[in-house]
Amino acid sequence: MPILQETLAGIYAPQRDEIRQMIKEHGDTVVSQVTVKQVYGGMRGVKGLVCDTSVVPPEKGLIIRGIELKELTDKLPEEIFYLLLAGTLPNPEELADLQAQFKKHMQVPAYVWDVLSAMPANSHPMAMFNTAILVMQKESVFARRYNEGMTKDQYWEATLEDALSIVAKLPTIAAWIYRKRFGKGDPIAVNPDLDWAENYVHMLGLGDPDGDFTKLMRLYLVLHSDHEGGNVSAFSAATVNSALSDLYYALSAGLNGLAGPLHGLANQECLKWVIEVNKKFGGSPSKEELEKFSWDTLNSGKVIPGYGHAVLRITDPRFDAFLAFGKQYCAGDPVFDTVAKVFDVVPGVLRQIQKIADPWPNVDAGSGALLYHYGMTEFDYYTVLFSVSRALGITSQAVVARAYGLPITRPKSVPTDWIKAQVNK
Ligand code: CMX
After folding, report:
1. Are residues 138 and 172 in the same domain?
2. Is residue 78 part of a domain?
3. Ligand 1 pocket, 244 CB below 6 A?
4. Hey, which of 122, 147, 292, 344 has its CA 20 to 30 A from 321?
5. 249 and 325 share a domain?
6. Mean per-residue pLDDT for 317-325?
7. Residues 350 and 272 in one domain
8. pLDDT tops 90 at residue 266
9. Can you tell me the distance from the alpha carbon of 214 to that of 202, in angstroms, rounded to the nearest whole number?
10. 235, 360: one domain
11. Residue 199 falls within a domain, yes or no?
């Protein structure tokens, strides 16, 4: 048995037993209450889900398996995937084992290219990416073994097989979409000697003479990997997976949510906004000009993309990491300079609007400018990159959920008349 599978078998069984025992002994302990505002407010703050891969304390930001993000920015995405699944960073042998498993699964079935080629030329890259994942559903080990009657305690192993197979292929699919959708030329074949992120850069074909773009991509793929369980993509994927729909169904469902402008699509919206600013002012604007432009955006009823968060109440540490990268590698780039200026100005503007809970930048505020700097100027593509990374978290969460034996998700909905009756009691 490969090291990863053997390690996880040793970890998950006692965790599952401990959870079962806790439910038996403390199943009726109250951990959260729900107000009318929360019922109508997207369940904000309701503690009704479990996610052990990561937590997002409002005043700290992302912590993966107990390790703060700032301690993880020099890691490979594969190391983060191992961390998400196993709870510890891999040693060199464990990392090599995981990378070898990825290599085994890298080849994408040819029918995927046929399906993508048949899509309209102006399809959104996210629709192409999610179609590619869904069309591979027939490869699912989980679905096959479920039909063969595998036992419940084997669900996580089959889900892990699907996770490895899907994640290994995502850079190849994503790079193919980039080249074909944006007329960049023929797809570039995978190079089995490169790591996951390096390979992605290689297949994008943008060139990387000094290796800095690869550094950015490794960072990007680490920073977006997971953000606990209640965000739209993670929650949607987990709900679909809880019906024992396999990961091909569940991941594409979750990533369809990531394609929304209030979620992952905000990164393309954000760069669009920054470019618009630079166009209007013929380069990086003054602080006064930027302040006025921000108010104009808000007064026209639009959000300032890349700012605000449903959970965070500080500058997103993922933004901090991108800003630090930009200062080191992209200083003087007018687009990056504007991103840095926006950070100086926009929180002060948003703080003046009482209803906005978080005036600080989120992950999407800076990432696009860095990609733009390295020649990836097609905004529509950015959420695909986000998806390649977020698949690490979504698939890990699914493996853990199956290991814990979590049941089908089924919260109770109530009609407004029922709420009115409670209010009038
Ligand atoms: N610009 C303008 N208005 C904003 C705002 C922003 N950046 N952030 C929040 N608001 C508004 C909300 O639209 C809401 O207005 P209404 O009550 O009129 O609907 C009000 O302030 C209260 O919102 P909130 O409680 O502060 O934030 P929510 O939890 O409802 O929403 C989020 C969070 C991210 C959707 C919101 O801040 C937003 O739309 N930001 C811009 C888009 C963005 O950057 N999304 C990416 C988030 C990260 C990710 O998931 O990828």
Report:
1. yes
2. no
3. no
4. 292
5. no
6. 97
7. yes
8. no
9. 9
10. no
11. yes
CATH number at residue 356: 1.10.230.10
SS3 percent helix, strand, coil of the chain, rounded to 5, is 60, 0, 35
CB half-sphere exposure, 266, CA atoms < 13 A: 18
| Residue 25 covered by a domain | no
DSSP readout, 141-204?
Answer: HHHHHHHTT--GGGHHHHHHHHHHHHHHHHHHHHHHHHHHHTT--S-----TTS-HHHHHHHHH
Number of domains observed in the structure of the chain: 2
In this model, does residue 269 exceed pLDDT 90?
A: no
Q: What number of H helices and E strands is found in the chain?
A: 19, 3
Residue 53 belongs to some domain of the structure: no
Ligand 1: does its nearest atom lie under 6 Å from the Cβ of 304? yes
Considering the chain, what is the average pLDDT of its residues?
A: 97
Write out the H or E segment, with its range, that includes residue 409. none
| Contact present, 280 and 293 (Cβ < 8 Å) | yes
Specify whether 124 is catalytic: no
Closest-CA residue to 367 (of 349, 386, 345): 386
Set 208, 226, 364, 373: catalytic member: 364
Q: Please tell me the predicted confidence (pLDDT) of residue 126.
A: 97
- Evaluate: CB of 224 within 6 angstroms of ligand 1: no
Catalytic pick among 224, 227, 309, 373: 309
Residue 230 in contact with ligand 1 by CB distance below 6 A: no
Domain end position, chosen among 260, 290, 312:
260
Distance 236 CA to ligand 1 centre (A): 19
